[in-house]
Here is the input.
Amino acid sequence: MTKRAMAFASAMALALAIHGGATAQQRPITVGEKEYYRAPAAQMLVFANRPDLFADAKIAGIEIIQQERRIATNGDVRLSATPGQWDPAARVVDRRVDRATGVIEVDLEYPDRDFRYTVRTEPAGPSSVRVSVVLPAALPATLAGKAGFTLEFLPSAYFHQGYLADGRPGIFPLHPSPTMERTDTRNPASGRSDGPGAEPLPMAEGQMFVLSPSDPATRVTVRANGGQIGLYDGRAQAQNGWFVLRGLLPEGRTGRVLDWTVEMTSVPGWTRAPVIGHSQLGYTPGEAKVATIELDAADRAAGSARLIRIGADGRESVAAQGAPERWGDYLRYRYHRFDFSKVREPGLYLLEYGKTRTAPFRIADDIYADAWHPSLGVFLPVQMDHMFVNEAYRVWHGDPHRDDARQAPVNHEHIDLYRQGPTTDTRFEPGEHIPGLNMGGWLDAGDFDIRTQTQYAVVRSLVRSHEQFGIARDTTSVDWTNRRVEIHVPDGSPDILQQIRHGALQLQAQFDAVGHAIHGIVEPDVGQYTHLGDASTKTDGLVFDADLKPYEVKGGRSGTPDDRWAFTSKASALNYGSIAALAAASRAMKGYDDAFAARALETAQRVWADEDGRAPDTFRHGNTTGGPIEVERFAAAVELLQATRDQRYARAIEDLVPKLGDRLAGDMVTALDALPLMPASYRTALEQQARAWATRAAGFAKANPYGVPIGEGGWAGNGGVIAFGLTAYRLHKAFPDIVPARHVFDALAYIHGNHPGSDISFVSGVGTRSKEVAYGSNRADFSYIAGGVVPGALIVKPDFPENKEDWPFFWGENEYVVDLGADYIELANAADTLSKGR
Here is the structure.
């Protein structure tokens, strides 16, 4: 027997010792009614999910969940060893499930490479699945050495763990340090804009890998029934890369060309610990207080829930207790609800169910009075573009993008859903510098573009907060002349007015520079787009000069083409959305910056008149060109009516209401802004909408145990929950007999921890336990930005709620977006107003 054969035999013996051999009495794993493989404490999903924004969102292909933690994903044929966000992925053609035999077959294709194949899975043991790649025709020669089946494993699940490759031991590295091979071309996922390419070589190779053999929660065995498997570390290409097991597809063969057995670790009798969903922020004395107890489907223990008051001496007393009321089943869990609304005494409390205890939380009158402070005083300042931002000892970023911006090329579809049409619609040639855009605006999210739709949404939300709640808090110093921001340093001006002005400056600059609103300003390439850290180091801050060589600097200009691109195709929807924000800002700026107020209002009125006198520009692409024109026009009319009281805008509103139809329900906040300035017939129309909305809202309490709309797309649904709360507040204020106030508090309780999957607050730094590892500009440090709001609990289809606490790079769960921060400020102030009877 050769040494390799002896090692393989030894590894097989070890695997049997670890897992136990399958006996004749043990039944093979089965496919249930939800169409995934299920064994005790282990499941395998097979193409239940598909990415909806980018080719690689780490939610696709074959996925493994063990002990209620998704530890593997993207089991599919890919064209690089460590595929990333920008690498091509196959298109699903057909999916067939035979529950009787347990066979699942998925046909896929790379149409532009003339390559089709089938991924077939079938039971192979009590917790094992045979995974095969079947080719109807031989692998195209152009894909030889490139196409391979990959299964990716979550790095944070394997930190501090080891593996065995044909019995040879290895340790998963905390930080990537693989051997790299220089290549002629760069991988688009590498995050490098220039220079040579490089690809990682395998950390280990073999026919059988046992990952994390000492830990049943993460132990997975993968055996190649012929051929070799390589283990790669994708984090050397991109910080969001994963550990990857990969087997190359052979040349010149058809039929079953790759054959693996994947054995999960099943633990009969294992049950997930209960989750006590509750508000990490706490509750006001008068509001409803309901904890949602989420139980494993196999957990049949009848427990008692207790609310415990914590005394100044550390002693605990029971403030409320009892058997929680069963709600029913939702997703993959069983739910009970524990109502402790009768407890009104201010103090420090915690909840207990069985052996599970929550972190402490408050009952107090002022719960919501300061919850929004981090969002306004930290998160929004950190997101300010074109400003140096400092917080005590920490510089969040220097003054970025002083070189904004170059005209985008025509007929070009860009990254991140930007596209330029057949003309520039400006006086500038493609590649030419557009002066005047290097001011104002917020960095959109975890990335660094200025998305115009986001800008005007934030301005309008902040203006509503200013006008409704009279926010006068001053903790931030903003100096536009010297382009500096100091967090925690008052300067005599309300922070909210400074933020409104900063956003409106960018919107006004677009009209001044090119005559109309633009889609936004975004990085010119993937290498710059994936930049992490200080935004000021993305570009050299110098306007590009094509007559200079790369990295050459002369006369304050640079030969490095790193300037961001402005996408400028005309879209009337963007014009309307932008002037809505400028009209709103003009009201807020009166008495603060009267000159800018007048300028913003003049622009808004002039652009309305121009749009009103011609056919609309209907260019559309992705989510960067505005909403439906009628919806954006309605918003502009409402904001202009409030700013001017001019009846032509009231007439436009009356004309638009029947055209909007059911879409009016999607923006009731805007519709209600106009209510005091419209005739009685308008109120009648809105009352009908309010009754329909109340009926839908009541239905959420039957759809899920949280009583709010829970989205199930590739981007989690906190935006919809906050919008639900804001709509409820405005409808309650206008029609208190139709819409109850409780929906406002339900929405905030959900955001603060009463949601599926965990009890974490989705607002970083708000609540006792909150998001401390999120997808912001500092995500590579596994850190957070106080006051940022993440998308929340992502429903991994068909039934798994997920929000990773140890892996920030899931943008659909963990990426901050600036408009959610503004909306949260508005909703928290609404709750504070209601709780104080105002």
Observations:
- Confidence is low (pLDDT under 50) at residues 1-25.
